[in-house]
Design brief:
Radius of gyration: 20 Å
Structural class: alpha+beta
CATH superfamily of the largest domain: Histidine kinase-like ATPase, C-terminal domain
Strand order of the largest sheet: 1-2-3-5-4
CATH class of the largest domain: Alpha Beta
Order of helices and strands: HHHEHHEEHHEE
Helix content: 40-55%
Distance between the termini: 13 Å
Mean pLDDT: 82
Strand content: 15-25%
Number of strands: 5
CATH topology of the largest domain: Heat Shock Protein 90
Number of helices: 7
Number of domains: 2
């Protein structure tokens, strides 16, 4: 449960550290061992990366960027029922290659629900031509996986009018999720945490 007073104090501390000049940091770190400096640098890097991934959240945008050197992959699929198991297979192969098996179960559920909701909306229109969707996976940090589903120009008008396509299950298993529409194009997305890093959430 969030404590407003504690949250305010923490935010003040983060701002104070962020405002420190290099000379101030040099002075206070003189008392630290090399091991402590390395440890603190690693922890503060995690904090900085985590804060950076919050950008745009108030507007429903997926987290920006990808962890340098980390995975990012995508697949273009036909927006029809047969694409759902293909999307799942792509996800499992990708996370196995990245050695991210610890988030596999939740990611599989998320990909299934996102693609199923998307295809269901498209199929109700019974279009006389096939349309596409793009599934994108990326590591926003060492602890977070972003799953995105993008529409295509041929079906953008349908997804824009579709209403909320984010399932209650996705809301439950994700750290954050959303459906963002801009200039007639829609992205469904969710952010998943790796279980062993829950203490950093």
């Amino acid at each position: 449960m969030s404590d407003p007073a504690r949250d305010t104090d923490l935010l003040d501390e983060i701002r104070r550290v962020g405002a420190c000049a290099g000379t101030d940091l040099d002075a206070v770190t003189l008392a630290l061992s090399d091991g402590e400096m390395t440890f603190l640098a690693r922890q503060l890097t995690k904090v900085a990366t985590h804060i950076a991934t919050r950008a745009g959240s108030s507007r429903g945008l997926p987290p920006p960027g990808t962890l340098p050197g980390a995975g990012t992959d995508r697949i273009d699929l036909s927006a029809q029922w047969t694409a759902i198991p293909i999307a799942g297979m792509f996800l499992r192969n990708t996370l196995t290659r990245w050695l991210w098996a610890d988030v596999m179960v939740d990611a599989d559920r998320a990909v299934h629900d996102l693609t199923k909701a998307f295809v269901a909306v498209i199929e109700t229109r019974q279009l006389p031509y096939p349309t596409r969707m793009t599934l994108r996976l990326r590591a926003a940090s060492a602890t977070r996986l972003i799953v995105e589903l993008h529409d295509s120009p041929e079906n953008a008008h349908i997804t824009t009018e579709s209403g909320n396509l984010i399932s209650p299950r996705i809301e439950n298993i994700s750290v954050r999720c959303g459906q963002h529409t801009n200039r007639g194009r829609t992205i469904l997305w969710c952010e998943l945490a790796r279980p062993e890093y829950n203490r950093w959430i």
